[in-house]
Amino acid sequence: MSESNTSWCWRCDLSQNAEASACERCGGELHSAPSSRESRLPARILEIDLSGMEPEEREMFLLFLDGANIDHQIQGLLLSVSSEDEQRIKDLLETVTSDTLVDFDPTQTSTESLDWAREMASKMHPASTSVDPLLLAPIPQRVLAAVISYIAWRMLKVLLYALLTLSPEAPPYVAVLAISLLPLLGDTWLTAWNGTTPGKFVLGIRVVNVHGFAPGWRSSILRTLVMMWPVLLAYWPGPLGQLAVVITPAWFLLLVVSIARDPESQGLHDRLAGTRVVLGRHADRAVV
Fold this sequence. Notes:
Layout: E1 6-9, E2 14-17, E3 31-32, E4 45-49, H1 55-67, E5 72-75, E6 78-82, H2 86-95, H3 110-124, H4 139-165, H5 173-180, H6 182-194, H7 198-203, E7 205-208, H8 217-233, H9 239-261, H10 268-273, E8 276-279
Antiparallel strand pairs: 1-2, 1-3, 4-6, 5-6, 7-8
Helix pairs in contact: 1-3, 4-6, 6-8, 8-9
């Protein structure tokens, strides 16, 4: 079987017919030889032999390469990468250990696998990894981004409420609640997806994890809850809801102070979620 007509299953370490849609043994994803992951590389390249890795480790390592946007080529068990990415490759090789394979699910889709690899990569590196101060978003820019987001979501809420009032019947309670929570839900989703909010997008800043990727759902939800819990408290009936009116501005001021006092501009919400806010033009880099 010629190499051009061959596909490769990294999990089973077997070559198979290129026309096959999945591995005949495990049903996993097949990659052509050279791999479908290959990209153009500069003249100076490094060659790394992957034969010493377990099939599961190789599969996860390739997911990490994709997640870090590192150009590479695969032929058989030989990996070729740019010499400029040598340090990042070493970091990823250290990340790929048997400990990270515990929660790996070979049946998940390629998108789910990539999200999983990004999340595992961020867990395997300490949250104290430093960032160049020049890449960190200034506090005034972050505050202004929050104001812009508030105005943008407020305008959208007014429009949606107006549409609800066009109906002769009383709007459903669930619809009213969903619209009122739209800023929190929207910012959480956008942050998990690509690290932005409306304000951050306008000002060119972004929330990232320790590897420079979008934080993902877990970190984004935690970050939102820590940052916005007084706002959620306002929906509680009775004295607690009234108390939120006083607590909310004091809490936001405390967050700003925590950002200002932290050497890496991480507020309490960033520390707990393992995130940082950086200039947008650097957001796609791995933060190492």
